[in-house]
């Protein structure tokens, strides 16, 4: 509940301090006195958007703060210590709004989540919202208390939406995936078929060059062998030189070393001759082998295009392609399988939706009975309130269309609330709904603005009684112009404006009678008017 409310620099309010109590509180005052700004301040604390034009002229900002006392069941739901919340929000004339809870800066969405869960405000705009099917459905769900059923349906719906999106993606990409699989498999098979070695390029280039130039190589190698091994050639010359060294080594023993080195050179030359001869004899013309190797090199060059510059890079590409094939094969799903999963998800939506539908039907019947009972006490005994729960195609909120209808009297047709119900009728239906929902809601404070629209006399007394009834379980704050309702309150606060500035204060005793006389349209000095006001207060006390 709200304990205190402080307003500074908002509209006609310069500085106001309101202290609230449990039970039923009314705010009264002449039109334009500033009652609307009190409600605006509360909407600010609920995180609602408020235009900077609401900042009082001459002030650089408006500030609102309030102290809330939490009831025990709510403490665990809010991540703050203790049972007291201090909510603060500032609205600058220029710049960004700021908010805090217990001196901790918070985003506006947290105000909406926390304060919006503690306070419910009803005004003329809320009557318009109440005509909407979405708001009516929310009321039925709140009354039913089937949060788990609703959460299960929403979860099934989201999964079905995801399954449909996945099915569409699978169908759209299936041909592309198949084309990619076919391409990768063809390339992998082609690379594997070649059985490439790491030095494949050098080997092919060497072998092709050798086979392409076999005749020239044989001729040149033959010339080299001839220059080394013919009579009078290099080996003969080296042999003659060795003979000389052997003859003179007896003259100088150190020459033996030179002779040994020359002898080794001659042996190497002879071995070189033999190797070159073998190499020359191996150089045979082989056009078929040359063609085979040339084709292999062409295949390799074709495979390298766009996949690497070397065989090592090509083999790395092949490895990655194999991994991608596994990914496409394992993670991929056929359109048929995707369609099957979608149908299974849609069936789960229907199952969850049917359970939710039955729960809503039961709740609608109970809520209808409760509201009609309340309307009977709000001078609408001939009216009949009803809730139709019609099965429709599944949507994000369920498989139901919920419509609240009102028949003002037995001879009138039953029509949706949004089609024909007057403002006064809507005010009383809204009040009846809130009284019926009171035990099912988390909100501990109800604020009504113009709940008295279009009513008066005995009806106003009944509305006041119902508001007081609601205030026995929840804190109720009402902005009203009707003395019959104001007289029913436990606490009476007056908003008045003087010289462009509004102030708020509590009235009791004679001061309260003065305010009720004003609301009755009489003079405060009129004994008859004061007696009438006193009678209203007495009537309220007698109905306790």
UniProtKB/TrEMBL annotation:
Protein source organism: Scrofimicrobium canadense
Family the entry assigns: Belongs to the RecN family.
Protein's name according to its UniProt entry: DNA repair protein RecN
Function statement: May be involved in recombinational repair of damaged DNA.
Gene Ontology molecular function terms on file: ATP binding
Keyword line: ATP-binding, DNA damage, DNA repair, Nucleotide-binding
Domain of life: Bacteria
Residues in RecF/RecN/SMC N-terminal domain copies: 2-498
Coiled-coil segments on the chain, per record: none
Record-linked PANTHER family: DNA REPAIR PROTEIN RECN
Source organism phylogeny: Bacteria, Bacillati, Actinomycetota, Actinomycetes, Actinomycetales
Single biological process term from Gene Ontology: SOS response
Any GO CC annotation of this UniProt entry: bacterial nucleoid
């Amino acid at each position: 509940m709200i304990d205190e409310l402080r307003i500074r620099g908002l509209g006609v309010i310069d500085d106001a301090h309101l202290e609230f109590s449990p039970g039923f509180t009314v705010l009264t005052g002449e039109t334009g006195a500033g009652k609307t700004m009190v409600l605006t301040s509360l909407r600010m604390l609920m995180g609602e958007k408020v235009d900077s034009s609401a900042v009082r002229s001459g002030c650089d900002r408006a500030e609102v703060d309030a102290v809330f006392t939490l009831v025990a069941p709510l403490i665990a739901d809010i991540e703050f210590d203790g049972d007291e919340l201090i909510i603060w929000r500032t609205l600058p004339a220029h710049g960004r709004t700021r908010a805090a809870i217990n001196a901790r800066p918070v985003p506006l969405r947290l105000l909406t989540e926390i304060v919006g869960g503690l306070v419910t405000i009803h005004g003329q705009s809320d009557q318009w919202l109440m005509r909407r099917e979405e708001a009516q459905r929310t009321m039925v769900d709140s009354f039913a208390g089937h949060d788990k059923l609703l959460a299960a349906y929403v979860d099934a719906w989201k999964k079905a939406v995801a399954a449909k999106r996945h099915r569409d993606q699978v169908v759209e990409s299936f041909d592309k995936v198949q084309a990619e699989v076919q391409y990768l498999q063809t390339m992998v098979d082609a690379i594997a078929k070649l059985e490439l070695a790491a030095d494949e390029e050098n080997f092919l280039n060497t072998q092709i060059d050798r086979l392409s130039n076999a005749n020239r190589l044989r001729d040149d190698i033959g010339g080299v062998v001839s220059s080394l091994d013919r009579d009078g050639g290099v080996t003969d010359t080296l042999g003659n030189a060795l003979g000389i060294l052997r003859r003179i080594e007896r003259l100088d023993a150190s020459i033996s070393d030179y002779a040994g080195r020359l002898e080794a050179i001659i042996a190497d030359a002879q071995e070189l001759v033999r190797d070159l001869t073998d190499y020359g004899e191996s150089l045979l013309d082989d056009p078929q082998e040359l063609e085979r190797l040339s084709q292999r090199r062409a295949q390799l060059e074709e495979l390298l295009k766009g996949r690497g510059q070397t065989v090592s890079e090509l083999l790395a590409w092949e490895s990655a392609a194999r991994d991608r094939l596994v990914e496409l094969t394992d993670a991929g799903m056929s359109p048929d399988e995707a369609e099957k999963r979608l149908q299974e998800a849609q069936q789960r939506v229907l199952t969850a939706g049917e359970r939710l539908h039955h729960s809503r039907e039961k709740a609608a019947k109970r809520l209808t009975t409760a509201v009609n009972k309340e309307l009977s006490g709000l001078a609408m005994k001939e009216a009949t309130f009803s809730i139709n729960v019609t099965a429709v195609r599944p949507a994000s909120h369920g498989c139901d269309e919920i419509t609240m209808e009102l028949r003002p009297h037995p001879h009138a047709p039953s029509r949706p609330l949004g089609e024909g119900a007057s403002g006064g009728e809507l005010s009383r239906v809204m009040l009846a709904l809130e009284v019926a929902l009171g035990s099912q809601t988390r909100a501990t404070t109800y604020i009504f603005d113009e709940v008295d629209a279009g009513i008066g006399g005995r009806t106003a007394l009944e509305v006041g009684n119902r508001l007081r009834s609601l205030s026995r379980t929840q804190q109720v704050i009402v902005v009203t112009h009707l003395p019959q309702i104001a007289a029913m309150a436990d606490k009476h606060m007056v908003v008045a404006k003087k010289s462009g500035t509004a102030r708020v204060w509590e009235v009791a005793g004679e001061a309260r009678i003065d305010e009720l006389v004003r609301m009755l349209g009489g003079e405060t000095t009129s004994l008859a008017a004061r007696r009438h006001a006193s009678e209203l207060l007495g009537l309220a006390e007698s109905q306790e």
